[in-house]
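Work Package 3 committed the consortium to producing structural models of liganded targets before the mid-term review. Because experimental data for this complex are still outstanding, the team generated a predictive model from sequence and the ligand definition alone, so that downstream docking and mutagenesis planning could proceed in parallel. The input record is reproduced below exactly as it was submitted to the modelling pipeline, together with the SMILES string for adenosine-5'-triphosphate.
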Amino acid sequence: MVEFCSVSESSRPLPWLPSAEWGPVAIAATDIQMVFRSGLSQVKVLKGVDLTVNQGEIRLLMGPSGSGKTTLLSILAGILTPTAGQVALLGHKITQMSRQDRTRFRRHHLGFVFQDFNLFPALTAAENIELALKIKDYPKSAIAARARTLLSQVDLADVSQRLPQDLSGGQKQRVAIARALAGEPQILMADEPTAALDSKTGRAVVELMNALAREQGCTVLIITHDPRITDIADRITYLEDGHISESPSWGS
Ligand SMILES: Nc1ncnc2c1ncn2[C@@H]1O[C@H](COP(=O)(O)OP(=O)(O)OP(=O)(O)O)[C@@H](O)[C@H]1O
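The resulting structure, written out as tokens with the ligand in place, is given here.
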């Protein structure tokens, strides 16, 4: 059972929830179970996962292919509802929220980075970020300037007017990082952010993502298969056979 501390002075207020039990825990999952059913067959992917990630921590989630990492991330983000178990983000039990409230919570407090970038192909790098800021209800008059600042932070000021098709993989992922951090989310979730990149570019991208996240005091949870980036994490959690552990049984 995870205990939440009371509101700390440095915590930023949530824009739409009346009160929050803020504390040092950003992500708390208790006894998460997930069963996928198809016809008569069923597969139990998560068999009672407990996970706590502290605010400001950078955590890697590793495990063999098919072990349920993306499923767990989707549950932690409130995209998938678990078969059983509870998830609290920033002190709010998202598993007990309506779908609409979960969506709103995600929009205001979470950022996402994906393996395949997920940029809008018809929008320039700057427009991709501006759209994210609009969706997050960022003040209209400040959107263009904020997008410019973010693009400078990821060293892409000179390609801000290019479409994704005219950017390299590393550049696309840097746009995606700028977009994910645009609304200053308290939690950033990344699913295989280096998978489509060569190792040098992948490492540079993750280092940049983590530096920016640390600057913003953002909690980061990264799914990865990439052993070359393990040193950037504060802690690593391994998922295997539906359970998590602090050390892997494979490769040891
Ligand atoms: N919607 C679904 N319906 C049925 N089975 C699913 C569904 N989503 C995932 N699964 C199954 O759950 C298991 C875990 O999938 P998941 O994508 O979470 O694993 P993963 O660890 O992220 O894998 P990878 O590292 O290959 O991306 C797999 O056996 C997958 O086939």
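Reviewers should note the following from the model. Residues 1-23 have pLDDT under 50 and may be disordered. These observations will guide the Year 2 experiments.
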